[in-house]
Amino acid sequence: MNGSVIAELVFHLGRIATGDGLVEGLTAAQWAALRYFDQANRFSRTPSAFAAFHATTRGTASQTIKSLETQGYLTRMRSENDRRSVRLVLTDKARGILANDPLESLSRAADSLPPSIQGHFADALQRMLSQVSQEQGKPRFGTCTSCQHLEHNGCSRQHQATYACGFTREPLLLEELDGVCINFIPGKPVTMKSPVT
Amino acid sequence: MNGSVIAELVFHLGRIATGDGLVEGLTAAQWAALRYFDQANRFSRTPSAFAAFHATTRGTASQTIKSLETQGYLTRMRSENDRRSVRLVLTDKARGILANDPLESLSRAADSLPPSIQGHFADALQRMLSQVSQEQGKPRFGTCTSCQHLEHNGCSRQHQATYACGFTREPLLLEELDGVCINFIPGKPVTMKSPVT
DNA sequence: CAATATAGTTTCTAGACACTACTATATTTA
DNA sequence: TAAATATAGTAGTGTCTAGAAACTATATTG
């Protein structure tokens, strides 16, 4: 088994799945942006972070975002802390069309894999992505749950245990821990998310 | 485990892996064409077949091929049977640079996966690709070894057993059975290629 | 033989993207 | 604290990808 076969398949599959034909008139780059801002946490919903994620320049990212804004899919607000910075949030209209993401076709195909291997599959992809990103000197994105920066204060047996990010020195809400972050540093080995009881 | 996570990863990984920066001055489309013509069998080394494979238009494919030709990576020859048709073959120069395919980075990442899962991984990708292609009404590409059209005449215990394609009605050489074909129809369930003794 | 289908090319246009300024705000340092 | 430097973001320009439509040449069909 040769790695180049797998590489070819991943590349080709990614290509095929999106070429379907610009659902709802959005381009591939615009879909990628919508998906990103849907999943990014509050530290990462900026043009620069999207540019880093999408492996493009800030200029290009800015254009993509501008067009989404004029189409009513994103709204912008300036950050209070840093007045250079801009935060972007999805509109309801955007959340609506995310249901017919052109990736849906690929997503269904993934769903129809044997459930027993889906986890391993996602894991393998994640690992490959991490390695490729590192080789190319690009930042790795990930969620708090496996990030070195995650700190949690408070007793674990109290349900009011609080979390914080050691990098931004900001408190984190429980529901924020699943957002994708640009400041991610792979710390703990990937842990299964413990079931919330 | 949600299929959309896997879909996102496949898409993103495919994107990241190629953005590295146009090794040797070729574009992503041109690399894809070189890879294709390297692997396609003799029925499929045409502009139209590449267009179908790459999910693009014949016009776009024509341009990609033209530029590769002028750069000395492909040579063209008209088919004898059908004088409209064109056959493309890689030059030695092309075979040379295929060694620094920008997908190499992704390929290495795939190689470093646990060997025990590489097979399952490739299998899963293949299955997803097949399903997506079918949903989108695009032709599926594959090799003779699992194609309905493959016929083999002659006694199997004779080493001179001959193969033929039932679709093109043409004989096939043993070494041609591994070429990717546009006329592929998934027949037999994917069989392990039996070791040649 | 006429109508239609197919292989391939060309031309035109929109959009993606890199590059190079450029502005505005932060941060560093001297 | 003032100056130098760094960072977030935008704007404009040029190149390339890719789709759409029009076109030529050859095959196939009725």
Description:
- The structure is a homodimer of 197-residue chains.
- By secondary structure, chain A is of the alpha+beta class.
- In chain A, 42% of the residues lie in helices and 13% in strands.
- Chain A contains seven helices and seven strands; from the N terminus they run ααααββαααβββββ.
- Chain A has helices at 3-18, 28-39, 47-53, 58-70, 92-97, 104-111, 115-135; strands spanning 74-78, 86-90, 142-143, 150-153, 162-165, 170-172, 180-181.
- In chain A, the strands form three sheets. Chain A has a three-stranded antiparallel beta sheet with strand order 4-5-6, with no helix packed on it.
- In chain A, a hairpin with a 7-residue loop joins strand 1 (74-78) and strand 2.
- In chain A, helix 2 (28-39) crosses helix 4 and helix 3 packs across helix 4 (58-70).
- The longest helix of chain A has 21 residues, at 115-135.
- The radius of gyration of chain A is 18 Å and the shape is globular.
- Residues 189-197 of chain A have low confidence and may be disordered.
- At the A-B interface, helix 1, helix 6 and helix 7 of A face helix 1, helix 6 and helix 7 of B.
- Chain A binds a DNA duplex (30 and 30 nucleotides) through residues 27-29, 46-48, 56-64, 66-67, 79, 82-86.
